[in-house]
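Notes from hallway chat w/ T.B., transcribed later so I don't forget. T.B. wanted the structure written out for a chain they're using in a teaching module, and asked if we could keep both sequence and structure tokens in one place. Agreed to drop them here.
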Amino acid sequence: MSYKKYKQEIIEWAKVLNRKGLVTAKNGNISYKVEDEKVLITAHDAYLGYLEDEEIILVDLEGNILEGNSELTTEKNLHLSIHNKFRNEKVVIHAHSPYSTAFFHYFDKIDIFSFETKFYLGDIKAIFQETPAVTELAPVLEALENSNIIVLKNHGVVSMGSNFKEVFSLLELLEEQAKVNLLIKSSKVSQSQPSSERANKADSPDNIKNKHKMLSKEHMQQLREVINNDQEVQELGQKYELTCTLAVKNQDNDEAMCFHYERGKIIKIDRTDKADFVIIGKEEILKKVFNRQVDPFVALTQGKVKSKGNFAKMSKWYPVMVRTFKLWEQAPVK
């Protein structure tokens, strides 16, 4: 089988990465799963902006070279471990995005100033590595379970996805936000705390109750209590007239719960999945969503959960839903 068209796709996106300044000289590497057990991966010391066919090597998931005479990138273990663990993701890019690298050299948490970008990035994790090549793979893979893009502290950014456009867009969005953050910090603009993050008694660790089984009666009651007793979410619910039904469904056992909102207040919770908006996911990822290890909006945009309903319509309730989802961690699950 000829992989010429796949190689050409890698070459074209490598040029885009170089043109956008996300890779320079001989840094950065790309891999592309072309069959279930076969991956195209760039060679060691390849200049991605001027990549050639012979610098793209076909390997199996164990790293055995099937076609090609060049030496594999030193980051081959990073790429292959990702492809082995995340079988549905076809593209992995390790970029050396300058603003993202610079920001996370000095800071641990990035502020996202664009509403749209929040849906795609969420909380970006920076993973520390002690060696020039990525050797501590376990924390990298663990972080990628929660987000399709992570930062390797002092060593660039790793993004994965089902196609090049999806992966590149995450890299580009993070780079834009890193640049904005650095500009704001360098100009010493004082930043007031957003209203959605105002101090609230419900945010105090002392108020976090015992963990319950996800979607159990106790879990639903605790969620209702936390949300209905939160002053901020009630004020926002009134302001934005949040009146709808929102359901969460565990696709592993078809168990569901539905929140009936009336102007921000939960007036009823039942077991139906017939709602205006439905979030559907595997039990493992839903637990992370409820415990706020994964942002619900990011889980949707990165395909970690599925949805039913017009979620674009939900954008008018964005401020109140951000606060609502934040409160979910006050009702943690086992």
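Follow-up for T.B.: The chain has a mean pLDDT of 89. Might be a good example for the class.
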